[in-house]
Design goal:
The complex is a heterodimer of chains A (288) and B (307). Chain A has 7 helices and 11 strands. With 288 residues, chain A is α/β, with parallel strands linked by helices. In chain A, α5 links the parallel β6 (169-173) and β7 (201-205). Residues 269-288 of chain A have low confidence and may be disordered. In chain B, α2 (25-50) runs antiparallel to α12, α7 packs antiparallel against α9 and α12 (235-258) packs antiparallel against α13 (264-292). Classes of the chains: A alpha/beta (288), B mainly alpha (307).
Chain lengths: 288, 307
């Protein structure tokens, strides 16, 4: 894991699930401390790309290194926040316990605190949890049950869980989904600050680029089985998106700078899944 | 099953009353077996409630009924039947096609069909046994007052083994229960842990069935954990409270039965239910006082008031 290699280096990659190509010819490079958004319609393969980076899905073609090594070997240097049901078995645990699981939840055996060395380790662990909670500003509600926290508070605690091992790469799957507008703006600002201050490379999956405008170093836009990468202005333009989809697409800029994309083709028929009917896009991830 | 010897009666001296309860060897064995099972069922049940697998637990308890009936039919100890059928049931539920998060509806349906099969099979085995199997009552409600020394030792040995395994896998299991995808990405074997937990649950149910009978397993498996989780959100405190409530339920139930003509199962059920109601009331009161002290800043006041 060399320090100066790009955090993510994906070249001419293709992914298939079964016999279907999800996307191909995708290249993406993310350097340390960069904040990159991964955009595209439902079913365009955004979550799939995260799974590839995590090493749980293999490339059909192309090359990939994550933190300078093949995917799946980044271990604790990658923080991951998947799409997650709004309620679940974690509801009865305190936010602090949820964050702690991110630190040493993968260890076997009990965290015994006998002897000075073990006690020191326990103190160190609690300090790390505290640090992550402070970083996301969740101190006021970290001792409350997760199920009693609002959506925005839950999302901050879960980001703290992803941060608690001080990762070099943060993969966030639609963390703004299901949040109201003020919370979307606040979480976007928070992620940008973490990326800048801690030098963490961030790849954030989003439907809508607008809450992120002004924070992003680059975007990657998946659509029509291909990807565009570059700055927001480069990628989200009528010309580039029309060529990506092979159909006329228009990008309008509102007077406040917000971008509106019109005429994006519907995803192909086999993507016609429940997401189009369920406004709570937080049910399961995309049906592939 | 009335408790026979010279009609013990309550006095106003608690020490004397406890002395009366401890006078008989069968009562000591019942208290010991009940205690072992309360600790085991409480701790396993805590994770079962958290993982929302109560229905799987209930189905495993129903597996205990044909298990005990089959053992009686073949002429071996009931314990073999309990363990055999509960472990088979755990393996079967672990292999159900829809097992996994996000598919609770269809999973309940397939677990429910396993349960129907188990109960039907139990009925068949009982009728095959014919009239000789007069003791259907103890098949369904256990025989806490007839536990032998050897059974106590057997129960304790199995409980220690199960709890040792549970302690070893506890943290990854909790991680896999709460955030399966993150845990999976970190190398935690999520699917294998789920299967392993079902097996531990099956063994715990088999143990509990021997004491309370299949029908009352839930008094010790669900209620103490659900009560503790309603009272406190701190994991360690919640686990200790679960054990304390489980022990209180069994020992109070046994003590009450000793001074009455009614069976311990009745009192265990009643104490268990009463404890749960009390815990919910306490939990709700604690929630309200937290809300008043302003620690809840997020949700609007109407939600707090409605909670």
């Amino acid at each position: 894991m060399s320090a100066d290699a790009p955090v993510v280096d994906l070249r001419a990659a293709e992914v298939r699930i079964g016999r279907r190509t999800i996307w191909r010819d995708v290249s993406l490079r993310i350097e340390a401390g960069e904040f990159v958004a991964l955009l595209g319609e439902n079913g365009s393969g955004k979550s799939t790309l995260l799974k590839v980076l995590l090493g749980s899905l293999r490339l059909h073609a192309g090359e990939l290194t994550v933190l300078g090594v093949p995917p799946g070997h980044g271990g604790s240097s990658i923080g991951y926040l998947p799409q997650r049901p709004v309620t679940g078995p974690g509801d009865g645990l305190r936010g602090r316990d949820i964050v702690r699981l991110g630190l040493d939840g993968d260890r076997w055996g009990l965290p015994l605190t006998l002897g000075p060395a073990a006690r020191a380790r326990g103190r160190e662990a609690r300090a790390r949890v505290e640090e992550a909670i402070e970083m996301v500003g969740a101190g006021a509600y970290a001792d409350r049950a997760l199920g009693e926290c609002s959506g925005g508070e839950q999302q901050r605690l879960l980001i703290a869980q992803a941060l608690v091992r001080r990762p070099r790469l943060l993969l966030l799957d639609e963390p703004l989904d299901s949040l109201d507008l003020p919370n979307q703006a606040a979480v976007a600002a928070l992620v940008a600050r973490i990326s800048r201050e801690a030098g963490v490379a961030v790849l954030l999956v989003a439907h809508d680029v607008n809450p992120l405008l002004g924070y992003l170093d680059r975007v990657a836009y998946l659509g029509g089985g291909r990807a565009l990468t570059g700055s927001v202005e480069e990628v989200i333009s009528s010309e580039r998106l029309s060529s990506l989809y092979g159909a006329p697409v228009e990008v309008l800029r509102a007077s406040d700078g917000r971008l509106v994309v019109i005429g994006q083709p519907e995803p192909p028929a086999h993507h016609h899944d429940r997401h189009h009917h369920a406004p709570d896009g937080r049910s399961r991830a995309h049906a592939h | 099953m009335p408790i026979e010897p010279q009609a013990p009666s309550l006095t106003w001296n608690p020490l004397h009353d406890i002395g009366q309860v401890l006078e008989y060897h069968f009562m000591l064995n019942a208290l010991a077996a009940g205690g072992v099972v309360a600790v085991l069922a409480g701790l396993i049940g805590w994770l079962m409630v958290l993982r929302r697998e109560s229905f799987a637990g209930h189905t495993l308890a129903m597996m205990a009924f044909p298990g005990a009936a089959a053992a009686a039919l073949v002429g071996i100890g009931a314990a073999f039947g309990y363990f055999g059928f509960c472990v088979l049931g755990a393996l079967a539920i672990g292999r159900l096609p829809s097992a996994g998060r996000g598919s609770w509806g269809s999973e309940s349906a397939s677990i429910g069909s396993v349960q129907a099969l188990a109960l039907g099979l139990g009925f068949l085995l009982v009728s095959l046994y014919g009239g000789v199997l007069g003791d259907l009552e103890s098949l369904l409600f256990g025989n806490l007052l007839g536990v032998s020394d050897a059974q106590v030792i057997g129960l304790a040995a199995v409980a220690v083994a199960v709890l040792a395994v549970l302690a070893w896998i506890a943290r990854p299991l909790l991680f896999a229960s709460v955030d399966p995808e993150v845990a999976g990405a970190r190398g935690v074997p999520v699917a294998r842990l789920s299967a392993a937990f079902l097996l531990l649950l099956g063994v715990a149910v088999a143990e509990t069935s021997q004491v309370t009978g299949p029908l009352l397993v839930f008094a010790l498996l669900v209620m103490p954990a659900a009560s503790a989780q309603a009272i406190t959100k701190r994991p360690l405190a919640s686990l200790l409270l679960t054990v304390a409530i489980g022990l209180a339920v069994v020992w109070l139930g046994l003590g009450a039965a000793y001074f009455s003509v009614y069976p311990p199962g009745f009192f265990i059920g009643v104490v268990s239910f009463g404890g749960y109601v009390l815990a919910r009331v306490l939990g709700a009161a604690a929630g309200r006082s937290r809300a008043r002290s302003g620690r809840r800043s997020g949700p609007p006041a109407s939600i707090v008031a409605g909670a």
